[in-house]
From TrEMBL:
Family: Belongs to the SAT4 family.
Residue span, Rhodopsin domain: 30-272
Ranges that cross the membrane: 12-30, 50-73, 93-117, 129-151, 175-196, 208-227
Domain of life, per lineage: Eukaryota
Higher taxonomy: Eukaryota, Fungi, Dikarya, Ascomycota, Pezizomycotina
Keyword DNA repair included in the entry's annotation: no
Major subcellular location class: membrane
InterPro entries, per database record: Rhodopsin_dom_fungi, SAT4-like
Name of the protein in question: Rhodopsin domain-containing protein
Amino acid sequence: MAYGGDVNRGPFLTTINWVFNAIALVAVLLRLASHHWRESQGWKKDDAFIILAMAANLARAIYVDVTISHGLGRHLEVLLEENPSGAIALLRLMVILQAIGLWTFTLPKLPVVALLVNIFGRNSKRLAIILYSAVGALILLVFIITITTFVQCTPVSGNWTGKGKCWNKNINVDLGYLAGSYSAFLDFAFALYPVLQVSKLQMERSRKILLAGSLSLGFLAGIITAYKLSTISSITDVADPTWATVPLEVWNSVEGTALILAASIPLTRPLILSFFHGIQALTSRMGGSSASGTAKSSKSSHGRSTNRSTNHKRLPSNGVSNSTDDILLHEGSGFENCSNIEAGNHRQSGPGIYKTVDILVKTKTLST
């Protein structure tokens, strides 16, 4: 992959950077809109997490543009010939960019964990402790790498001037491999867990696949992270870092977006379903009297209503089909009425997985 040609990779990086960040931003806005459209309890912890993660991605996106305007994506030799002081300033900006980029694959883990805990661990503190501790370990590791990115040289300016005493550059590179590998492991683990949980639910296979797929987008993020690790070696190219590190920044943009999508897409489902139900309702109304007349004629010819039993109770509607996967993905009181299937049969409302028990009743005619 050429990553934008042999002269200036900057425009290519700019395009990738903003296209993927725009996708991530749309996903976050839809997630927040869906959440607060169905919720009346205000902002929650997971909202703060996703906003923080998106803010980190946007901060990096803006900073990438700044470095590109200073020459990122061009060969260092050319930059030194044109403007030596400008090239040194660019190298300083790149050190800061490297530190910011570490957080774009770290912070999006928090809303993913919040989603898993809200769905699968509301009644168990153990899951929350395990998942948040796992992410906490990554945050601690990334914090250490952020510090070492600057202090590996004495004075700190030695990181971009080449003057001073510096550690072996492989130390920070190895720490980067460690953080990236652990991040990929968490992505795969957080994607696999909901698949295993959904597989235990009693629902149609097609619905299981759809639900599990929406909750396991972390697999894509894990694959991207694993591939990105192959580009980390580029930052050791001290001869031409302004050119060689572009692939790493490209995959940082893609990875950050994949993680944001993994945390956002599942919670946009109620809004998307409502949109399509609204389209269907509008289409139905546009059918007008012809559809209504057909329905009445059909009822008359059969001599009965489609609601054949008075023993069946209709579940309240909130504007969106209250299917099992909607209940599973919803956070809050929007589906509270679904918890009472029959009078006197109460179940705690809110998110979680509920097991459906089918009871088979057999009747036998007794002869007298």
